[in-house]
Amino acid sequence: MAVTQKCQYALRALFELALRKGDGPVPAGDIAEKQAIPKRFLEVILHQLRQGGFVDSQRGKDGGFYLARPAEDVTVGEVIRFMDGPIGPVDCHREGPGQECPLRGDCVFKGVWDEAGKALERVYDTRTLKDLTAEKSRLEQEAAGPPYVI
């Protein structure tokens, strides 16, 4: 299962809001520009994220979007599930209508798909928006190199 482009945009938009926590509402255009997301598509995604309780918005001159919950409470996994549905390595591993496998019960790959699905969930469900902002800070410090000291 590949994470859809729409879901990647949703994650990047939430990440940008997490980076700007405390700065007040962030206009959609600023998010779109900073995260290289088409603005019209982002507006649709932000509306979905608002319905899902991930973001809230403020209208007006100083309006924009902000996280509806603390960054440490939002996992990558829950955003993926909200945007793309159940997490699984292959379509037949995911549950839902149209996902019936003709080999159900006799599939020798089921154990592989189960194990891979659990690994994906473990990675996605243990990464929060706060973890990602901390990782960005770490990467920026690493890129800057050691402090210059005489």
Give a brief rundown of this model.
By secondary structure, the chain is mainly alpha-helical.
Question: What's the helix and strand layout?
Answer:
Blueprint: H1 5-19, H2 28-35, H3 39-51, E1 55-58, E2 64-67, H4 76-84, H5 110-125, H6 129-144
Antiparallel strand pairs: 1-2
Q: Count the helices. How many?
A: 6
Shape: globular
Distance between the termini: 52 Å
Largest sheet: 2 strands, antiparallel
Q: Element order, helices and strands? A: HHHEEHHH
The radius of gyration is 19 Å
Q: Could you characterize the architecture of this molecule?
A:
The protein has 150 residues and is mostly helical. It is built from six helices and two strands. It has helices spanning 5-19, 28-35, 39-51, 76-84, 110-125, 129-144, and strands at residues 55-58, 64-67. Strands 1-2 form a two-stranded antiparallel ribbon. β1 (55-58) and β2 (64-67) form a beta hairpin. It is globular and about 60 Å long. The N and C termini lie far apart (52 Å). The mean pLDDT is 91.
Q: Main traits of this protein?
A:
150 residues, 6 helices, globular
